[in-house]
Predict the 3D structure of the following.
Amino acid sequence: MLAFALKRLGLAVLVTLTVSLVSFSLLFMSGDPASAIAGENASATDIEAIRTLYGFDRPFLVQYTDWLFSALRGDFGQSYYFKLPVADLIADRLSTTMLLGICGISFALLTAVPLGVAAAVRPNSFIDRLALFLSVMGQAMPSFWFGLVLIVIFSINLGLLPPSGSSSWKNFVMPTVVLGYYAMPAIMRLTRAGMLEVLNADYIRTARAKGASEWRVMFKHALRNAVVPVVSLAAVQMGFMLGGSIVVESIFALHGAGYLAWESIARNDLPTVQALILIFSLFYIVFTFLSDLANAWLDPRIRVG
Amino acid sequence: MDDPILSVRHLTIDIPLAQGTMHAVRGIGFDLKRGETLCIVGESGSGKSLTSLAIMGLLSKKLRQKAEKLQFAGLDLRNQTPRMMRGLRGDRMAMIFQEPMTSLNPAYTIGDQLEEAYLLHRKAGKAEARARAVELLGKVGITAAESRLSQYPHQLSGGLRQRVMIAMALMCEPELIIADEPTTALDVTIQAQILRLLSDLQREMNMAMILVTHDLGIVARIADKVAVMYAGEVVEQGTAAEIFDNPRHPYTRGLLRCIPVPGKTKPGERLGSIPGIVPSLVGNFQGCAFRGRCDVAEPICSEMVPVQEEGQEHMWRCIHAAGEGASEGVSQGVRP
Amino acid sequence: MPGSIRASGWGEAMARTIETVAEEIRSPSPGAMLRRRIFGHYGLVFGIAVLTIIVLIALFAPLLTSHDPYTQDLMARMKPPFWMAGHDPDHLLGTDHLGRDYLARLLYGARISLAIGAVAALISGLIGTAMGVAAGYFGGKVDLVVTFLINVRLAMPVVLVALAVVAILGGSLEVVIVVLGLLLWDRFAVVMRSSVMQVRDLEYVNAAKAIGCSVPRIVLSEIMPNVLNNLIVVATLEMAHAILLEAALSFLGLGVQPPTPSWGLMISEGKQMMLFEPWLIAIPGVALFILVLAINLLGDGLRDVTAPENRG
């Protein structure tokens, strides 16, 4: 278990470093970052001044290590647009996005897992059909459009929920549903498939032969085994969801990190964009790392070698 | 003592399929007393396992099951509620399955799973259940039982897992134990140990045992009674002596020809085999199911099969009476 | 528990997460049995039919409408569609805020979505399949490298990276297609890797190795035909994915640029007026939904039809 955890941690660190290299390279994709920052009407001297100011005249690897070591200290540089330290900007916005992510994944799990279990227990029943319908719809619906439809229905026509802002819990209802619905179909499918597989397992028959009740068979013996891959998927989806928060936050004008990303991309604020890409990647890396550890712990074949 | 603990009459199991109804078990019956061992023998697909699952009330709801009589310890199993069946299962009747590798839940320790069997039926504390688990692990020949309790199934070998399964089945001292091919998945050396263990424990606890197998060598060693199943029917049944010393049904004779006999079968010699395949049981079926593979079949076999009896228990389904028309070269007296 | 999990070695440490992604593809879709019982392959038939219609619409858009999707008519702005009062029979689906015919924009928009979906899936399919097949076939160090790259790719937030790159390079149809193509190869690689691993040690592959067939020959003639079904299923799913992503990028204003008739862009433009004219977002949104639904049903149907347990 410890060996596994250490190797997994080493992998997480390597992936993080590689992602940081890629996101730092983005700055140079346009060719000359100095002229990109200076804007279209800048003179050659201005561009030169910016180049020296930001150190773009140094070799790439020097700039990268410099940036990386600052980033490790929590210093992501100055935002070109907001003229503030990037780290402060992000720290300010992160709690909103985290809250949204947690609400979203909770919504997805709370709907998908019971639905998946119910669908597996009674295949071809009404609930199985409903699960199928919701999952097919969810996979085909563009989430930004789903958000707009919700605004039209619940804000404009019914006046129940505020269309934008982040001042009260009501602001989080629609974004949670939109974000959660994005992750729901995959989790539901996997829960259902996993439960179907596990319910056919020999040890389920053993449990019944012992005289265990259906409820006990379902929740103690079956779900415990079916949930293992669902934990991994939930972590992966959580990472994807936070990355996708940029869309949801911009629809509902929730001022989180995703909204910040949208603003800074639209304004060519590269240091902020770099930092955000790294941070969103880091979320994914941490979630999947933790879920692998959780899985290893849930699966005695790994826990006790 | 003399009333049978289990009494089955005309049990049928139908499986609805897209192509029609499959009559997987067709009117079988037997009686079993405490302390007796009944071996149900037959090829795979002959309905042996379905029969044992039906007695346990573990058949999938999709299958249709009927019986004229299905009585266990004076209880009519046909009209027990699911809750009452649960109360019986694991307590008064228990089952051991074929696949020890997959029959234990990988997520829980051996101790958890053994104790669960006890706690479900006895008003007992964790400590008592634990003590019982240790006791039974000792009984099934597992050393260092205490430390095994905290192990997971993947840490045990197949033979050990099957011992655990046996211990689990015996946690509540059942009156009836059904073992469905308990040794098929194990190494040959382990097979013998497990069988001896089962048969010793059965005698010690005075249980009735149904052993489902396709291995006649096993049957010869531990059976009191034998039921030979073919294509969903019991084609011949009787005491072990009757079946082995005086087999009546051509199928039983064929099966007996398939076992190597020490001293008689020369190395390299071909063992007997029964040519042909089991007929499809989908749709209505008339006459003898074995006729397509039988070397003494007559035209009348496609219309009817008489049930013939001899003595107290010996019964077979064939138009041929004792000895008549039987092919030569049947090896008899294989009982060691 | 599905799959055997061992805790030793780097390979296992890396493969765990990506196996989750593969699991999604391999498991039959919910209700697969149910649908087959009720409709036969209804979903598959529906998917093929609708997709064919949309492809025909895209090809023959100029024949289906006399309007040009770019021509503005400021005198005829915001005409409502045919089911609302005050509509103009000349503009069946009304006009947008610049007086452009909405039906024409919708029909020509199908070209954008299909082009994005097909070409992006082609690019990512080539990259992902090459990586996945190499990893699955050679195993060992090659597998470690590919698995690592997949992990890196999965860690990067797609929407964010795509938006940033498109913003730096400037939004255009070509840029969006290439960026999406370079980003969406992960699932191809994951699924091809595990599919190839499943067939690489089969008898006929070993036989081909034994008689001295070259690696490209074994891969192309022995392995690829056996993993093709999975490849096609992933391709349909990634096509849908690319279409949805393009729409999202264009919606955020950082994808295909105006005045191109992209459905995502139409929704974005309609958003300003959705308070009063919700049909402006309803029409392109429903079109997008139907297209993606059709592609997904096609993919689901193909997966169910080609799943090993369903082969005669």
Observations:
- Chain C has a mean pLDDT of 82.
- Chain C has two domains: 1-31, 40-310.
